[in-house]
Design a protein that fits this description.
With about 500 residues, this protein is α+β, with helices and mostly antiparallel strands. It folds into two domains: about 350 residues, 2-methylcitrate dehydratase PrpD; about 120 residues, 60s Ribosomal Protein L30, Chain: A. Helices cover about 45% and strands about 10% of the residues. It contains 19 helices and ten strands. The strands form four sheets. The protein has a four-stranded mixed sheet. It has a two-stranded antiparallel ribbon with strand order 1-4. The radius of gyration is 22 Å and the shape is globular.
Length: about 500
Amino acid sequence: MILKSSSKSDANEDVTKQLCAWVNQLSLSDIPDDVRTRAKYLILDGFGCAIVGAHLPWSEKAAEAIFQMESPGNCTVWGYDKVNVQLNTSVNCTLMENTETWATPRSVVNSTEIQAFELDDWHSLAPVHSNSILLPALLAVTSHQRANGAPPFDGAALLLSTIVGYETGPRVGLCLHGSHMLTRGWHSGVVFGHAASAAAVSKVLGLHPHAIEDALGIACTQACGLMSAQFGSDVKRMQHGFAARNGLFAALLAKSGYVGIKKVFEEPYGGFLATFGQGSGKEPPYLVDELVKDLGRAWQLESIRVKPHASMAGTHCTIDTVEALQKKHPAKLMNLADVVSIKIEMSEPAFKHGGWEAHRPLTATGAQMSCAYAAAVQLVDAQVSPKEFQSHLLDRDTIWDLVGKTKCVHSPELGGKYEQRVTIQFINGDNISETVDAPKGVNPPLSNEEILAKFRKFTKGLIDDKRRTMIEKLVLDMENLEDISVLDDLLASVQPLAN
């Protein structure tokens, strides 16, 4: 479905209703083949991230806490379907008898798994980690509905609803000037993601436009997210789960007839955009028409990026710039003790998000969010993968010696949003410098083949080859999957292989 064009003034008055009508009427036949194909590879990447993250310490800690506080329900959690699952948290070791819970807490745990190791997707213009919001919410609600007597949901429904979410979240973000929300200190994806979850769940439930508007209004009044979570808290891993849960909750309320805020995006007093746009420093403070601009013609999914490195997206240009220096000057960087200083110049959003001064010790969360730390890891290990952030490697003297020599600065002269420059000075007075316009994953984006290779690489050794191959085939042929519970069960049954 392509949205009929409206004048800008008309769009400003009814963008919420226009979006709801589009969500309601969109069919897979309206979506170009290449967009549908790309969506399947993005979904596969999301499931791969969940497999990597399911049994990391902070994921297990979250799962244990939620299993203990929630009554038993009808939904399994990915990686936790077996009775007496052993949880090896840093707090204690517990044999959990209840590993089934309700749809809303399930969505939080599964989202935490996808976000567990900074490997998941992100939107390059309006930062939001879509898979960690959409896949947990959609598979939780379909599992819940199935347990209550609904017929099976097929793969086509999952694919279509996920694409609805892929389109909605970034559009909300573009209304608020995208990455500028990070500069202001908001965890942008959590702010943008409530509407994405509500729209996607509304679509899979088949809600009519008035109910979708109610769902959006209920979801958006819950939106929030503080970026200070990045400095070491476990909750950084969980915040997108709040959006998944709250959007799901909103859509189920709307399905029951509960009335939400009408015209939630364009309402001038207390509306979503007017309120989050306050203090933006932009003129205008927000852009209402971005919500439906070229809806059905320009696909925001095409700006969703997949990460090759296990760290926050703003660190990727730092890593790639350091890697370029390593390739050009291998002899000079042979002895890192000769390094006197490292200067990393970057744009304002990257500086605010990743240019903060890191202090020893750091948690894995903080380390993955720091450009200085990521640069040091690349210099020492020549890669930034999950294993570099194991707890016993976080406090290495070699890393912290380089972090102490590193200064991150905002350089307005770097016009590109992703552009960074790294300059390294040596004890003999020599300097080497390199500028990279954008990291791999942004320009060029990872191809579908590279996403598949990433899925295979990072899940190898975590699950058996047969299960991994089954997940891969089911996702990449999703339109022909008759019952998505098969896929859900495969993920719920994932158990870590013995070390």
